[in-house]
Protein 1
Amino acid sequence: MNTLPISYQDVVAAAERLRGVAHRTPIFRSRTLDKILGCEVFLKAENLQRGGAFKFRGAYNAISALSHAERAKGICAYSSGNHAQAVALSAQLLGTRAVIVMPADSPQLKLDATRGYGAEVVTYDRYTESREDIAARYTKERGMVLVPPFEHPLVMAGQGTCAMEILEDVPDLDALIVCTSGGGFLSGSATAVKGKTPNILVYGSEPETADDTKRSMLAGHPVGEGVPSTICDGLQTTRPGDMTFAVNKALVTDILLTSDTEVLTAMKFMFERLKLVVEPSGANALAALMSNRSLFSNKRVAVTLSGGNIDLARFIQLLHNV
Amino acid sequence: MNTLPISYQDVVAAAERLRGVAHRTPIFRSRTLDKILGCEVFLKAENLQRGGAFKFRGAYNAISALSHAERAKGICAYSSGNHAQAVALSAQLLGTRAVIVMPADSPQLKLDATRGYGAEVVTYDRYTESREDIAARYTKERGMVLVPPFEHPLVMAGQGTCAMEILEDVPDLDALIVCTSGGGFLSGSATAVKGKTPNILVYGSEPETADDTKRSMLAGHPVGEGVPSTICDGLQTTRPGDMTFAVNKALVTDILLTSDTEVLTAMKFMFERLKLVVEPSGANALAALMSNRSLFSNKRVAVTLSGGNIDLARFIQLLHNV
């Protein structure tokens, strides 16, 4: 484990940087859910995190660790999703500016929210332009620092602080389920758990149509896929990172797969019984638990609700027939 | 104030009974909301209370104060809404049984939830049968105790514990807005506030089409109305209670009125920005603030989100064009 890209101490250091800045999000219980699933479920509400998702943890950790000279030149990121808002908000809080490269057809809510945090949004046509090229213009020509969405030790360690809070708040946990796309959240979470309480099992979850991490685990090395079709728009990364995968391969027990229908059922349950808005990707880990209940029978299981950024129109479009 | 039906000490006693039983619900902030409204807003999330609404506080307070002999005979209540679930859950927690008289055409979610808390649900046809007559059968013939939804000192005092928590959590508050129907929540809240920090102004809110409390305040005595047409199904009581009105007349600054459109706007904001599901009645107080912002300019204002019990289908029906 000494050769892994991040250590438990990196997560501890991240928690120090985030103290008083990130929300310590609440853990929700539901007796109804426990009864239905035959286990004790602890729902970590990262949809209530600043910026609406766990992504704030990693972005803030990475940007706050920069030197004043680096930070003064500004931050650049490309994302159509929650990482955009996380970087924009973190840059604002740390007194620097951010350029976020986003697809021109991003949901208006996300464009507005990113601009609302004071970032400059540069839009591009996702069919004819390369976001990497555009970002390179800002990083090479203006010296801005690129903060990647997952393949970065400080981002990975920052995401791990969520699991650290779960461990502090829930005694005698048996398992933790975290959704995975590029693998930053899962690798940080697994590092936190295994560094503190190695007997707790850590599972990843991803859509069955976006199972690049599952197939990578089977292959023993990162394998890619085409852009997957899934309602979980935050889990569409086409290949795990090399660093994130190295951690996940070493520490994660298994990857559980979900269908879109299972995700919608989990979203509906969260809405009606917990009064919480969870985006599709944010409901993925709960969907994985709901469809693998035998694996967790009579266990104490924590599930991360990774984000809640979905506009009302899209929510209604997805759920009007569920 | 000595002649009012409840005192600050009654609220303090209720808080003791509810300690460790009711959730101490969180207070949410939104920088965006503060900026839009030009004031500091503190949102008390009673939609996350047990049973999905503040109603649990009053029901549990009333039932837990009964003698063992009284409690042993069981509890009866009539309600098509959140009071039903609150009484059912409280009775279950206190080891007694409850009969809840509910309209046969109540939303399935509410019937299921009430039964889920172990209550016996007796349905009636709201066009041909009297719920009072049915309830009388249980109270007179079986000796069950009727727990009314608002016109009861212990119910009123229990509802006041929510405001007490707000006062503890938010220093230097200028005003509090609480929705009102029968007036239990408002009277308990006003009693808590005025007993501890008299300079804080307490406002009620209600739909402009269900303005019986506003008109009662102008008349100086309770006046009734026909069953009002409003999306706020929890605020359709046709007349304030005598006891609740006596308190509100003495302690409440004014009643603010809302339109259905304003309520839907508030619900949408809570959904998209706070990730919280709030039922129409639960968004009423926030709608009142949003449409009376000049009244609260630069003030620190607490708003109660009184409940979150709305099924997904109804939510979509109401909000698909907003």
Protein 2
Amino acid sequence: MNKERLMKYAELLVRAGGNVQKGQPVVISCSVDDAYFGRMVQGCAYDVGASEVIMEWSDGPTTRAKYLHGSDELFDTFPQWTVDKLKYNNDRGAVYLRVDSSDPDLLAGVDPSRIKRATKASMAATREHSALLMSNARRWSICAVPSPAWAKKVFPDLPEAEAIDRLWGHILKGARADGADPIADWETHKQNFVKRVDYLNKKAFKSLRITTGIGTDITLGLVKNHIWVGGGDMGKDGVPFFPNLPTEEIFTMPDRNQADGRVVASMPLSYQGRLIEGFEMTFKNGRVESYSASKNQEALASIIEMDEGARRLGEVALVANSSPIGQMKTLFYNTLFDENASAHLALGKAYPNNMAGGADMTVEERVAAGCNDSLLHVDFMFGTQDMQVVGISEDGSETVFLQDGEFID
Amino acid sequence: MNKERLMKYAELLVRAGGNVQKGQPVVISCSVDDAYFGRMVQGCAYDVGASEVIMEWSDGPTTRAKYLHGSDELFDTFPQWTVDKLKYNNDRGAVYLRVDSSDPDLLAGVDPSRIKRATKASMAATREHSALLMSNARRWSICAVPSPAWAKKVFPDLPEAEAIDRLWGHILKGARADGADPIADWETHKQNFVKRVDYLNKKAFKSLRITTGIGTDITLGLVKNHIWVGGGDMGKDGVPFFPNLPTEEIFTMPDRNQADGRVVASMPLSYQGRLIEGFEMTFKNGRVESYSASKNQEALASIIEMDEGARRLGEVALVANSSPIGQMKTLFYNTLFDENASAHLALGKAYPNNMAGGADMTVEERVAAGCNDSLLHVDFMFGTQDMQVVGISEDGSETVFLQDGEFID
């Protein structure tokens, strides 16, 4: 991919994605193999006046080696200094940017209990930090770049260099970063969301009934005063940002006690290096009553059984089939892209901003109002070409607002 | 460089250098550009039973960008979590390995006051950690690999790929890692030091008078009960290790109050990205009375004026001209190699192990015994082909034990 194009993409992440302001520290999470791009992002961050850019380097093989060869107690441990580091940067008002290029098979063959324990230890220790991100008290944004392993996973029949090139093309198109002025394109993109979000927020449906041809038939109660969000988000300090590049979804908060019916996944879920395939769940009163998967069911179990909140829903998100990613008909093995191809639900923690005043409530107050809480937040796709969504109002009247995978305007 | 050769070099660092024992955590400092080699070292460390391998990634361009564009207060700040991280790993008994490939010109053009302040803040905050390393309470080892910038600095007339290849050859030869069994070669190398070190320790000279044809003429008092060390070191726990790959020096502790005369550097000193050239110092009662440099004198000043101990000597090291590095007649712009080409002195902190019982004394007790203390420890070369060293005994008798750059056996 040519350098000028990459620079525009890096700028999009810094200026539109994290919307870095003069004087803010920026933390960039980046794989050592993606240093060439991480340094571009870093340069853009200093260009807009970042006070400091901190690179948080990661390395897939290092992570894998630790899981395979590290001593067992490591996976129940999360050093306090790591928590203190997050607090140090949060107190200084850091913006978090992530360059993702994860190998979907990174943790294949690793002892699942090690992954589960490590995830639990990390999530418990960084709960405060996650809450800051999810309540938009700190801005953050994620974009993706190809790695050889990821590109070969998505395009197994292509030679490596060609696969990388093809994935770059898909990423930039999917992230609407392939035009002459991506930042302007994103401004337009954002405006297109406004009408749809306003419509749904005025409707203030009591519940949604969602059906697909592959077996999903579920009714989701929405929390009172729920807010539909889409096309970017607003920082607590009033500075807008885009947490995800790309973003094609509009989403809101289901009531943690009001999901009834069956959801059949329409795409595999790549979770911590394992691919969960052919899975479905049945809900009763908001809780997963039963579940199954044709492949990697134990990975699905490690999600659902993480804690009580992981058995309940934190997000319902709708995506039009006509989105650039939806049109690519490509499984990216990466939630950032796959969640924007199709409607999805999230098990686990809800975004407080999806409820009026949610960000200012305590966790207990939120839970009492139906807002789900958990150590994790995991999206999975269920949308299909023939999906239908019906909004049910307080008075019982029904409005079909999404038919055959497209919004009815 | 072929992979098998590199694997032997990585093994040398882990098994002979740090001498990693089963169940120990290992911290590997490595540039993101050297990940291919860092991962080999990591693999060897797990092979010998490391409990965890922690990669401390660094990136030259990131460091440079921070100095150029970071906000000014960063350079007086050293976050507490960084100190806590060191303590966390030290308490677990970590071994520290470093893969160095620094660009000698990394910080060229950077505001020297920023470098000086950052160095001071870092050294003050990590004083406890440095003391653990310098007293061998924690084992550590450094090796080098070429970077494009470093290779081009050493061999400016060669194309980049050739310069890298040539530097690899020099590094492996200099580190005695070019044979079929480098670990066995290092065992032999170590035995060769024993005779020389034993001889000097039995002599227990009161002082040394060192002269060279380019103007050095200095008398250095040695501390009482000084110990000559060379060809590896002994951990406090009785496990031997080699802090530096290569190592060709034997060294001991000058008395911090007893250096009188003039020292003329025989090689430039590459310090924090700046090359100090044509420099000399005059000592009186152990203290630098005056100094000058033909280039980058302000960098020399930033060393000498760091603190009182930086004006005094912490180490005198002798190297035979016939060492592999001495024979290469190459300026490496890297202390790890250049210090093994030639005799040198260090400004700043002394190694407590160079005095009988030193490692068990308090800093105050050591200083009272003539052992220098400082935030820093910086080596500079003064050895020449025609260097002569005379040992002066308590009774005033003189023994020439190094003549024309070679030890007299």
